[in-house]
Automatic annotation (TrEMBL):
Top-rank lineage group of the source organism: Eukaryota
Protein name: Tectonin beta-propeller repeat-containing protein 2
Coiled coil: none
InterPro entries given in the database record: WD40/YVTN_repeat-like_dom_sf, WD40_repeat_dom_sf
Length: 265
C-alpha cells in the first residue's frame, strides 16, 4: 500500500489581523475630498507592527497592550515606501517616503530608565528618489537608507544628545533593492549587482567578478546568527532562478540552481 505525501505548509496565518486593519481608516478627508488610504509598507518585531500608508501616516501597533498609535511624517501628503523597526535600549522606527525623506521616531517607553518623550529626527537633502530599503545597526546608532536612484545614506544618531548627522555613503548606478548590516559590513543589493561595504575599512567589494547581465529586483541577505565578521555568509538571488552563496570577501563559493525545484511544484 502506498501513501500520498503530506503537503508542507510554508506560510501559515495564526490569527487574522482584523484588529490592526480595523484601527486604520479606509478613507480620510483632505479638504473637500475623500481620499482612499492604501497600506504601502510593513515591518514587524516582537513588540510592534509598523504599517506605512499612502497618506504619509505611520501606524504603529503595540503587541503588548494591543494599542494603535499613529505618527505623521509631516510636510506634503506623500506615500511611505519603507519602514524599519528596532528594539534595543530604546524602541526606534524609521520611515522612508516617495520623495526621499527619512524620518526616525524614538518612541516613548513606560519602562524605568527608558525614553519618556517622543522624539523625531529628519534626514533630508541626500536622497534623489523614493526610499526602497532601510536597515539599522544593532545598537541603533546607525541607520542606512537606500533609494531607487542608487544612493545609500548613513545617518548617525546620538540619542543622548538628540542629534542625527547624515552623509552620502554610496552611489550605485541602479536602484537599491535590499540592504542588511551586520558586524560593520553593509550588504547592498541593487538592480544591477550586490556589494559589500566595510564601514570600518571603508572598503567596497562586489559579489562575483561581473555585474548581472540582466537587471531586476534581485535581493540579498546575510545568513542569520553568525557571531563574527569573518563568518558572514551572503545569499544573493541571481537571474534564471539561481542563488549564490558568498563569503564576506565577495567570493562566490556555491551556486544553487532552483529552476528544477520550482518546475516540480
Amino acid at each position: 500500500m502506498t501513501t500520498q505525501p503530506t503537503s508542507v505548509s510554508i506560510l501559515r496565518e495564526f490569527c487574522p489581523l482584523y484588529y490592526l486593519l480595523n484601527a486604520i481608516p479606509a478613507k480620510v478627508q483632505r479638504g473637500f475630498r475623500s481620499v482612499l488610504v492604501y497600506l504601502t509598507a510593513l515591518d514587524s518585531s516582537s513588540d510592534f507592527l509598523a504599517v506605512g500608508s499612502s497618506i504619509g501616516m505611520l501606524y504603529l501597533s503595540c503587541r503588548r497592550v494591543a494599542q494603535m498609535n499613529k505618527y505623521s511624517v509631516e510636510g506634503k501628503c506623500e506615500a511611505i515606501t519603507a519602514v524599519k523597526l528596532l528594539s534595543c535600549f530604546d524602541d526606534l522606527v524609521a520611515a522612508g517616503t516617495a520623495s526621499g525623506r527619512v524620518v526616525v521616531f524614538q518612541l516613548v517607553s513606560p519602562l524605568p530608565g527608558r525614553n519618556k518623550q517622543l522624539r523625531r529626527f529628519n534626514v533630508v537633502g541626500h536622497h534623489k528618489g523614493s526610499i526602497t530599503s532601510l536597515t539599522w545597526s544593532a545598537n541603533g546608532m546607525k541607520l542606512f537608507s537606500g533609494d531607487d536612484k542608487g544612493r545609500v545614506v548613513l545617518s548617525a544618531l546620538d540619542l543622548d544628545q538628540g542629534v542625527c548627522q547624515s552623509v552620502l555613503l554610496l552611489e550605485e548606478s541602479s536602484g537599491v533593492v535590499q540592504m542588511e548590516y551586520r558586524h560593520q559590513v553593509l550588504l547592498v543589493s541593487t538592480q544591477q549587482r550586490s556589494v559589500l561595504y566595510c564601514t570600518q575599512k571603508q572598503e567596497l567589494l562586489q559579489l562575483g567578478t561581473k555585474p548581472r547581465k540582466r537587471t531586476g529586483r534581485f535581493g540579498a541577505c546575510f545568513l542569520p546568527a553568525l557571531c563574527k565578521q569573518s563568518d558572514l555568509l551572503v545569499y544573493a538571488a541571481r537571474p534564471g532562478l539561481r542563488l549564490w552563496r558568498s563569503n564576506v570577501r565577495g567570493e562566490v563559493e556555491d551556486t544553487q540552481l532552483l529552476k528544477s525545484f520550482f518546475d516540480k511544484q
